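--- STAGE predict ---
source: upstream dedup step, 1 unique chain passed
mode: sequence only
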Amino acid sequence: MKTIKLMCMALVAICLPLAASAGEQRVIAFAQDTMANDFRKAQVYEVRDEVAKHPQLSFVYSDAKGQTSLMIRQIEQFIEQKVDLLVIGTNDEKAVVPVVAKAYKSGIPVIVLDRGIKGTQYTTFINSDNIRIGAIGAEYIAERLGGKGVVLLFEGLQKADVTKLRSKGFLDEIAKHKGIKVIKRTGNYLRKDAVVEMEKLVADGLSVDAIFSESDSMLSGVRMVLNKNKIDPRSIVMVGCDYTSEAQQAIRDGSQTGSVLFPLGGKKAVEVALKIFAKEAVSKHIFIPVKLVTKENVEQVPPIF
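--- STAGE serialize ---
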């Protein structure tokens, strides 16, 4: 039976091995950027729950707490542990490239999940079309505003490829509407950071007609600030990304206009891992479909978590 040692708690903030069963265990390790982000945490748990359905698999994960240097050390330890497959959810598209390449060249299949990297030495990249996500948000907002108004773009982590791609998709599409002005702020995909930035905007007396937030977590923070300052969220066209259960309820009650569904990708990652273990060919890039959720279809589309 294959065994894997638990990692030092100083490096791996959280590590959860599933119970081993008879026969050789295949160990899937997930090096995650941060568990402080609702989406990232749910992503890890989706992989964990899918792995639990397969007795021949076991699972460990690490929490880099948003620190790229810590993530690199954690991946190094996974390499030393000789895990059977590595899933990466990074916060920096460039800094992790050498260590990801090291894992891949050592014979460990690597699934890059959700956020891409600038290298090519990995097994497969699973994500959704982030340019399309931004464009969907822009198309919908431009239509709701009749092509005129001020739009706040709340961006995520500046070093993450998803941020650059969503922003590009949004800005390229919104540029087709000359009557719309865009201002940008950074919320790092975190509710608390969005709260800080939105408080500043309200204090400065800035008024906007619409908001496109690159995550529903940030939009949740925006709503908190608006409600605190007695500004009705219903008076602003607000579109988020991910489509969480919190966003679903906000769309139902009208305090959020829409959300672009962005699948966690955990189920797909395990599905692909099983194919890799079976020595089946997998595509270098796998796309998961996205869609806009509004009040019209909110009851038909299940949230991602």
